[in-house]
Amino acid sequence: MHRIDVHHHLFPPAFVAGLVDSGHYLSRGIAKGWTPRVSIEDMDAAGVATAYTSITAPGFDVVAPQRRVAATRECNEFGARMAVDHRGRFGLFASLPLPDVDASLKEIAYALDVLKADGIGLLTSYRDKWLGDPAFAPVMDELERRKVVVYVHPTTPDCCRNLMDGIPDWVIEFPVDTTRTIASLLFSGTIARCPNIRFIFAHLGGILPLVASHLTRAVEVDPKLASRTGKNIPEMLKAFHYDTALRANPGALKAALELIGVPQMLFGTDAPLRRSRDQLQGLLDHGFSAQDLRRIECDNALALLSRRAR
Fold it and tell me: What class is the 3-304 domain?
C-alpha cells in the first residue's frame, strides 16, 4: 500500500445529476453507482495508498449554465469531505468553473485556503479556448502566485465534437487536445510567464511524444513563437509531469521515456473508469528497475506534492 495515484475520478451527486440530465454515456456506467467505497476497494486491489481525485470530462458542461458555479463548489466540498472521512486515502485536485474567470478566481481561494485542496484540476479546453488563451491569463497568474500543482485532464473542444460518426471523442480527440493545450501554454508565453505552476498532464501528454519535434521546429522557424517561449522546448517539456493512465503499454512508455524520462512520470489509473490493477500491471510488465518503478509509483508524487492527503 505505497502507490500514489494522481489520476483518479470522483462522482459527486451534483456532477452525476448533470450527467444524467444531459444523457451523457457516463451516467449509464460506473458514475451512477459510484461511492467512495467503490474507489477504496479498487485502490486496495492495486496497493494504492492515496488517490488524488478530480472531476473527469466533460466537466460541468453537462450542468445547466445557471448551476455551474454552485455545482463546482458542491463537488469540491464533496471531495474535501471525502478526504477527511477517509483520512490518508484521498487528496483533491479541485475544479474551477471556467470559462467564468471571476468565479474561478474566487473558487481558487476557497478551494486552497478553506478546503485545503492539494491542487487544482483543469480540463484541456473550455468551449473554444485552451489553457494558454489570454482570457484565462488572470487564472494562470493567480495559480502562478500560489505556485499551485495543476492537474490537466483532456476533454473535447467545440471545434472537434463528433467529427466521425460512431467514434467517441475520447478515442482520438482526448489525446490530441492534451497536446493542443500544451502547445497553447507554451506558444502563448504562459509557461514562460508562470514558471512556478507545477503541471501534471494526463495520459503521458496525449500524442505529445509523437509530435514534440514539431513543437521544437515551430520555434526554430518562427521568431514570434521563439520570443514567447523563453527557453528551448525540450527543456520546457521535461519540466512538466505526466501520468501513466491508459499508457502503461510498451509503445507509449518507450516514447515517453525517450522524451521526458522517469523523473517526470507519475502513476495514474483513470479509476474508477478503469481498474487500477490493470494499469499497474502494465508498469510491472515493462521491466523497470526496482528504483525507477518506485519513483513512478510514489516517490515522484511525494516530491511534487507538498503533502499527502491526511
Answer: alpha beta
